[in-house]
Design goal:
The chain contains 11 helices and 10 strands. By secondary structure, the chain is of the alpha/beta class. The strands form 2 sheets. Strands 1-2-3-5-7-10 form a 6-stranded mixed β-sheet, with helices on both faces. It has a 4-stranded mixed β-sheet with strand order 4-6-8-9. The chain binds ligand T3D. Residues 21-22, 24, 60-65, 67, 70, 77, 80-81, 106, 108-110, 130, 132-133, 135-136, 138, 141 line the site of ligand T3D. This is Enoyl-CoA hydratase.
Length: 259
């Protein structure tokens, strides 16, 4: 199985599983990944998603052997990027539940873009990002032109994407690309701890927060305020909000059920 899907404690763990090829992405793996993301998005019992890689890499981006075959056959890239990478990234960003990337090793090209699309990135000390696109004469895809400048600012994003230098975990933390950096042998535990915490949180409010941020990113303040009002109304109708308000007034800890 090129992608492993497992649910425990309301966390869906999606593991990219082609370790011999650094979890680089073939068409069938991209289809499996998209299927797993859609399954997690649609399952009400899943309240957070954890994305990681098997072996020593998170994901080395497009499988370049398959890519070379496509070039040789004269197949253009727009179709495959639209058919695979775009829906994968949109599935992560528009999912109404938080997505945590446990970056266990190198994340290159579309693999780095995939990590940037997630809501959180917990990095092992030996993890690194490689904006490998320019190194093979390509421009960014999988949303890196959009996500990276929002994460590190336009000047840094330009530098990283044009120069393609490798960013180690310590530098990633300085740049704001890492939520946290932990020793490699603590990564699984630290990322899972965060995912479980999120899975026990106000799922509807988390989804609304993601939608509010995405909406506000390209809108005026009056538009953002209007969208916030709509989303706040949606959250106010949830059982979680009613129970948490009551818990606050009773000086109790809230328990969120995700509805
Ligand atoms: O077609 C489209 O849809 C276009 C879309 C493009 C999106 C993209 O993602 S473009 C960017 C593609 N990715 C890259 O350019 C990264 C290429 N890989 C590397 O730069 C390095 O391998 C790494 C920095 C990821 C790791 O370096 P290192 O020294 O730790 O390992 P290595 O020895 O280079 O690789 C280990 C094995 O993984 C090796 O296989 P082998 O020789 O042991 O049989 C290597 O060929 C394989 N591997 C690594 N990356 C890829 C790969 N195989 C296929 N595709 C890869 N991307």
């Amino acid at each position: 199985m090129s992608v492993i899907y497992d649910v425990d404690e309301a966390v869906a763990t999606i593991t990219l599983n082609r370790p011999d090829a650094m979890n680089s992405l073939t068409v069938s793996m991209k289809e499996d990944l998209l299927g797993a993301l859609r399954r997690a998005a649609g399952d009400r019992a899943v309240r957070a998603v954890l994305l990681t890689g098997a072996g020593r890499a998170f994901c080395a981006g497009q499988d370049l052997r398959e890519h070379a075959d496509n070039l040789e056959a004269g197949r253009g890239l727009a179709g495959t990027v639209r058919a695979h990478y775009n829906p994968i990234v949109l599935s992560v960003t528009t999912m109404d539940k938080p997505v945590v990337a446990a970056v266990n090793g190198v994340a290159a090209g579309a693999g780095a873009s995939l990590a940037f699309a997630c809501d959180f990135r917990i990095l092992a000390e030996n993890a690194k990002f490689s904006m490998a696109f320019s190194g093979i004469g390509l421009a960014p895809d999988s949303g890196a032109s959009w996500t990276l400048q929002r994460l590190v600012g336009p000047a840094r994003a330009r530098e990283l994407l044009l120069l393609g230098d490798v960013v180690d975990a310590a530098r990633a933390a300085e740049l704001g690309l890492a939520t946290r950096v932990v020793p490699a042998d603590r990564l699984a535990e630290a990322a899972r701890e965060l995912a479980v915490r999120l899975a026990q949180g106000p799922t509807v409010a988390y989804g609304a927060t993601k939608r509010a941020l995405d909406h506000a990113a390209s809108r005026s303040l009056p538009d953002a305020l209007e969208r916030e009002a709509e989303l706040q109304d949606e959250c106010a109708r949830t059982a979680d909000h009613a129970a948490a308000t009551k818990a606050f007034l009773n000086k109790e800890r809230p328990r969120f059920e995700g509805r």
